[in-house]
Specification:
homodimer; 232 residues; mainly alpha; Methane Monooxygenase Hydroxylase, Chain G, domain 1; elongated
Amino acid sequence: MRKAFHHDLDRVTEDLVEMTRLAGSAISRATTALLDADLVLAESVIAADADLDDLRERLDFQAIDLLARQQPVATDLRMVVTAMRMSSDLERMGDLARHVAKIARLRYPSSAVPAEFRAVVVDMGRVAESIVLKAGAIIAARDVEGARTIEADDDAMDDLHRLFFERIAASDWSHGTETAVDLTLLSRYYERFADHAVSVGHRVIYLVTGHYDPDAEGSHEDTEDVLLPTRR
Amino acid sequence: MRKAFHHDLDRVTEDLVEMTRLAGSAISRATTALLDADLVLAESVIAADADLDDLRERLDFQAIDLLARQQPVATDLRMVVTAMRMSSDLERMGDLARHVAKIARLRYPSSAVPAEFRAVVVDMGRVAESIVLKAGAIIAARDVEGARTIEADDDAMDDLHRLFFERIAASDWSHGTETAVDLTLLSRYYERFADHAVSVGHRVIYLVTGHYDPDAEGSHEDTEDVLLPTRR
């Protein structure tokens, strides 16, 4: 029975890693759709999110089934519970990528991103893709050391997020408030995407060490609320 | 053993209802702090979020302990798993209320909300408080019929959210982009707050009926992406 159980757990891990791949692909393609005002690509990102939702559903069914049939304890129990939480993070990351794609679609044939914001959006897309792929490698290898460094990757996103808001709130803004709204939401989506990747990293630490602390277990605290520019 | 188990489950339910109360109080007080530029109140909302985090932590420990010791199956298992998901929604609602309070604190001694947005913010705060208290009553009574109506309450929030964005993107905007950024984030926080309450309602339906569908089980889809005003 334990052999079968561990076979099932391996399958769960594979599904989680596959979810990180899908989320990485989604945010990368959504960023391209946004920058190139590519409607077809945006539509494909929006449609593909259903795959991530299906995978999450399958994974959660499997996890509940494992709990019911195998009644795991200790580390095995922790693995199943943690997998369900990671799948929730990863599904949400897919939603956020889809939101980016929807803004691309909404503003087509224009791009929602003014020229001087393109470079920052490119960087946000790169950081987002890289952090979720890193999360996948961490899950696959149960890599606690890697997981401990993922917060530093998120710092890069927070810096970009801060830069974004500072530029939007600058006094010489000339793009209208509709674009300000779009960019505020976009920046928030990328930042939350990275937060969920950090949360996945923390969950791997919990999984392996059993060490519970609010940061390692709860959702990673999102940071936008300390990043708003102060009133000048 | 089953009697002890059901006693423990009742305790979990009580904790969930208590979490809805704390989240309701937080969003109500955060709204007041925001509108009155009340720094002391804003600080107290920010500090009180730790109580919600603690309660979530306790509840999750209890749930994992129940899984390990009692190895529930069928409805009992569903109850434990669903409780962990609801606690995650409710903790996140507390975070969102804290975000509102942090914007209030950031803009003190000014109010982040211009005069003509006050009425909409008042309404958003009322809908948010009412929907989380409703979610609490639904949890306490396992009220599937009530849970089926909670989406309609969320529609009121979506209408307010849409109104907000339309007004921000209007061509006669005179409040600067910093205020546009603040209001965009605020509107998003209230809207996500209500989404999580809907998600709690869906989870109660799943808990009682065992009926799994993506809407009833996954996080409630947030709706902001269809609400952005179209480019004029």
